[in-house]
């Protein structure tokens, strides 16, 4: 039941041979029970013995005896004189002493130094790189170990060989945190390397955690290895900005695609400028303007930035809206010109109707005047008859045309 490891003991026998003091380094796993034997004590009462402990829980020496009460759930003296700690915690690290008188009346002292440990979960490489670029510093990944005590140490390996940080080609950034409640450690180590141009193309990285001498058995935990490809950088030569449709002019509401071509390895970051001012958008190599309005008009350019070669700007490209005036008739596919055409047709129709009405009114007025004259001076009845016939037929015609109207 007790995971009791003695990493060494020394015995000191004093000149008279009456007092025997043994000291032992003990390490115990957190959360497990621990039994410390009181050397020389009779297995059964009556016993003359006393336990004294000085740990992080105690302010000074805490004394426990077989007759006394147990110390809460922390520790108690068993009937055979041994001391039981039901669940060891970080707070129990310290010194435990027992003084007992054996059957022959000789006083025997036991002395233990207790250290505790916890084995963390298997370390892992989080946020691993997908590839590395030769000649520049690259983050390989972060090795993470959680829940250990004591913290332990992380180390990196390249193709099975230990990687020693030299601050140039290999550098490591370490961080140690402690859980506020459990007191267990989280440690992480971020590896940055600068692969040599012409070096290995597929290096394998791994990380290991050394637990130190306290934990018996397994002393080192290894991550799964990661294999990466190394790229030789291609310098950023020229940045081109391609506009689609060509010329960058569309009717209002049309779409424009601007593509920034900046061939380089690693791919550079692309930012956009409009009339010389940066556009507040995330870096991207394609800028799509879905519905071009007046506010989108201007000179666009893109800026490619790469780690090793700095920034380069493309030549500017103009985005504009095609005017829909008299010479914009051919752009009949959009709303504006279509409306213009409709207005034109309506205008012509309206003109025609007005003209017809005017002519109609003029004719009517003339007839009216003629009739009046006829009534006043009926000189010649033949003429009148003729006129009446004429009038009748005209009336008929008007009625017919009215009936056939809309
Ligand atoms: C016990 O541990 C202490 C401190 O870690 C060390 O100085 C001492 O040598 C150890 N004793 C034995 C017997 O291993
Ligand atoms: C005393 O009893 C405990 C629990 O039964 C046992 O683990 C321990 O070894 C005993 N001590 C001795 C000295 O026999």
3D shape? elongated
Low-confidence stretches: 1-18, 328-337, 377-381, 383-390, 397-406
Helix % is: 10-25%
The major pleated sheet works out as: 6 strands, mixed
Strands across the major sheet, in which order?
1-2-9-8-4-5
Keywords:
single chain, 406 residues, alpha+beta, Immunoglobulin-like, 4 domains, six-stranded mixed sheet, 2 helices, 29 strands, 16% helix, 39% strand, disordered N terminus, disordered C terminus, binds 2-acetamido-2-deoxy-beta-D-glucopyranose, Advanced glycosylation end-product specific receptor, histone binding, S100 protein binding
Give the topology:
Blueprint: E1 5-13, E2 20-29, E3 34-36, E4 48-55, E5 62-64, E6 76-77, E7 83-85, E8 94-101, E9 107-117, E10 124-126, E11 131-133, E12 138-148, E13 153-158, E14 161-163, E15 170-178, E16 185-193, E17 204-210, E18 220-222, E19 226-227, E20 229-231, E21 240-244, E22 249-250, E23 256-261, E24 269-274, E25 277-278, E26 286-289, E27 298-306, E28 310-313, E29 317-321, H1 335-376, H2 381-403
Bound molecules: 2-acetamido-2-deoxy-beta-D-glucopyranose (2 copies).
